Amino acid sequence: MGAEGRRRLLVLFGSQTGTAEDAAERVGREASRRGCPCVDVISVDEFDAKLLPGEVFVIFVVSTAGQGDMPDSMKEFWKFLLQKNISSLWLEQVHYAVFGLGDASYQKYNFAAKKLDRRLLNIGGKPLVQRGLGDDQHRSGYEGAFDPWLSSLWNALHEKDPILLPRRVYDMDASTQSLDSPKFEVIFHTNSETISNGSSAFSDFNCDMDLIGRVRSMSLGKSHHKRPEYLLQMVKNQRLTAADADADVRHIEFECDNDLHYQVGDILEVLPAQDPDTVEAFIRRSNLDPDSYITVLPRDSGTDHDPTAVASVAPVKLRAFVQLAMDVTSACPSRYFFEVMSFFAGAEHEKERLQYFASPEGRDDLYQYNQKERRTILEVLEDFPSVQLPLEWLIQLSPPLKTRPFSIASSPRAHPRQVHLTVKALTWSTPFKRKRFGLCSTWLTRLDPDHRVQVPAWIHSGSLPLPPPTAPLILVGPGTGCAPFRGFVEERAAQKSGPPVLFFFGCRNKEKDFLYRDFWMRQTESGGVLAESGGGGGFLAAFSRDQPRKVYVQDKMREERERVWRMLRSGAHVYIAGSASKMPADVLTALEEIVAAEIHADMAAASRWLRRDQGGKIFIEAWS
Question: pLDDT at position 226, please?
Fold first, then answer.
């Protein structure tokens, strides 16, 4: 079947944080257990979209990013699918299914999956089942919808092709199940072996770029962000909020020996350091030698690796591998982790509990124990002391240590060898009152510039493109959403001339969390970027808790409707940055109301005016 007569099930995933990849891996495992002779689970950015018509059965698992956007790994694939020359029969031989991962608290809930499903149908694809929509707000998380959707999928595939999927069900009795083979092979090197290029020191995260690249290449395979583009040194860590403010927000400056190549609106991705004591505790709990040297290789169908190929991969210290590749201190494990643990439990009561957690009946209890409490790999292992997992499984099942993205808060014109960030230290309490901390934000805000710690980093384009120097700007950035607009204003100041800029900033209290107050005030003075002008520029701040009635940025926009309208009518580009939950939607609604009143039309017509007709372009960068 397909272009080469292959009979296979292709599972493509578009993942932003790794959850869609976990779900796709589960699709692959369950298909194999039902007797599917060939299942390939592939990140969508590693699949050539032109070959899609040659497939027969394709399952898509897609997360939604930002404001209804495709995940980064899927953007090129999606761009290809949107080509106008693709006919309505292009996928007439393809049977597909789509499962989305999203959060119903966001306005554009699961938009990526919805858009993909609609497009596949429009170009000839034949749906196997109705699209599934996973919701983080469900009491069982996305698996509350995933379990029944999978059941429908297996029924449909078995009916369509019983040779591809011989069994629509498999024996779910845990006592009769066998353990899958791990995807990785770990080779331990003895002291007598030659350790070539593998002895780099690893102290206080000051390790070289090549070591980081080697470790992450071993663990992430073809994934992006292996060798860092830069090793940055922190030179400033300044608290922006008052000591008694609800949040600890910092202005952080990094420096590089060479010029940094970025533009305003870009993103800096940082690889955080994990707490060394917690890493050592994980290594001790796992009965591993932190100073041993290892090589990690993908397992190739159970065959031995070519010794020449093994020798070409420089070994690394086990401690460095855990520190740089395995998130053992902040991310919670997947459901599959509990299933695999059950095979290695020495105590019968622990085995039974793990089997229950991995079963459909235990799904809700697992979600409360695991995801809701944000338990880490180390915490779970400590809760089941009889379990001793081999390193191969620990590597496969530990969430990979991910880079964290931050909007750049500076202009390269003003700071050619520096990059600035605005970082809020994330803290929250779980349902059982456990205090949790954001791994990267807490690490960054606690770093001392005098300790000269080097921070691995990458730079890439974000959702806010560089504004044309001739375009008027409306900027809306409450809280840390102001970060990219500090860079925008610095850029305009360096250009020394330009059309008006109107900036709406919001925070809780004028005296506690008015981020970059002095900077904005200087720019409102005569000749400044944010000075009021006949064209409509200026700086407006909303302090939501300084009066009985809460006032937000969208309220300020309505108060300044005439100024907003003048800017829009002159072709202003609109940039919105900040929390992804309600703020972007509320700001867009305020803009539409202003336009509707001015052009004497309904909200739908106002929306069209803003996006397609005389209005400015609108760009949104939102984060959870």
Answer: 78
pLDDT at 535 over 60: yes
What whole-number distance in Å separates Cα of residue 541 and Cα of residue 543?
Answer: 6
Within 10 angstroms of residue 288's Cβ, the number of other Cβ atoms is 18
How high is the pLDDT of residue 394? 97
- Other Cβ atoms within 10 Å of 384 Cβ, number: 21
Give dist(CA 105, CA 151) in Å, integer: 26
pLDDT at 574 over 90: yes
Strand partners, 408: 421
Q: For the whole model, what pTM was predicted?
A: 0.88
First to last CA, the chain: 43
pLDDT of residue 180: 85
| Radius of gyration of the CA atoms of the chain, in A | 26
- Contact (CB, 8 A) for 621 and 464: yes
Contacts of residue 422, defined as CB under 8 A and 6 or more positions apart, other chains included, come to 240, 249, 250, 251, 252, 406, 407, 409, 480, 482, 483, 486, 515, 516
Q: How many other C-beta atoms can be found within 10 angstroms of the C-beta atom of residue 477? A: 26
User: β-strands 230-239, 249-255: how paired?
Assistant: antiparallel
Q: What is the reported pLDDT for 310?
A: 58
Quick check: do 9-170 and 473-623 share a fold?
A: yes
- What's the pLDDT tens digit per position in 384-436? 999 999 999 999 999 999 999 999 999 999 998 999 999 999 999 998 888 99
CATH topology of domain 473-623: Rossmann fold (3.40.50)
Find where tokens 């020359």 sit.
85
Q: Is the pLDDT of residue 529 over 60?
A: yes
What single DSSP character describes residue 400? B
Average pLDDT, rounded, for the chain: 89
The pLDDT tens digits of the residues spanning 448-474 come to 999 988 899 999 988 899 999 999 999
pLDDT digits (tens, 9 = 90+) for 469-486: 999 999 999 999 999 999
**50-78 burial code (b ≥16 CB/10 A, e <16):** eebbebbbbbbbbbbbbbbbbbbbbeebb
pLDDT tens digits, 304-332? 555 555 556 789 999 999 999 999 999 99
Which tokens sit at 222? 């073809």
Residue 40 contacts residue 180 (beta carbons within 8 Å): no
Q: Which is nearest to 260 in space by CA: 39, 476, 414, 454?
A: 414
Among all chains, which residue has been given the structure tokens 């990267």?
440
Strand pairing category for 39-43 and 316-317: unpaired
For the chain, domain boundaries? 9-170, 473-623
Compute the Cα dihedral for 201, 205, 207, 210 and give only its sign.
positive
The DSSP secondary structure of 483-525, one letter per residue, reads HHHHHHHHHHHHH---S-EEEEEEES-TTT--TTHHHHHHHHS
CATH hierarchy code of domain 9-170:
3.40.50.360
Please list, in sequence order, all residues whose beta carbon lies within 8 angstroms of the beta carbon of residue 116, skipping any fewer than 6 positions away: 60, 62, 70, 78, 81, 98, 100
- CA–CA separation, 334 vs 346, rounded Å? 21
